[in-house]
Amino acid sequence: MTNLAENGKPIESVWDFPRPPAIERVEWRITVIHQGEHIVDAPWAYRILETSQPPAYYLSPDFVSFDHLRPSAHSTYCEWKGPASYADVVTAQGVTSNAAWTYPATSPAYTAAAGFWAFYAQTLDECRVDDELVVSNPGSFYGGWVTANVVGPVKGAPGTLHW
Question: What domains appear along the chain, each with residue ranges and CATH number?
Answer without folding.
Answer: 12-147 (2.170.150.40)
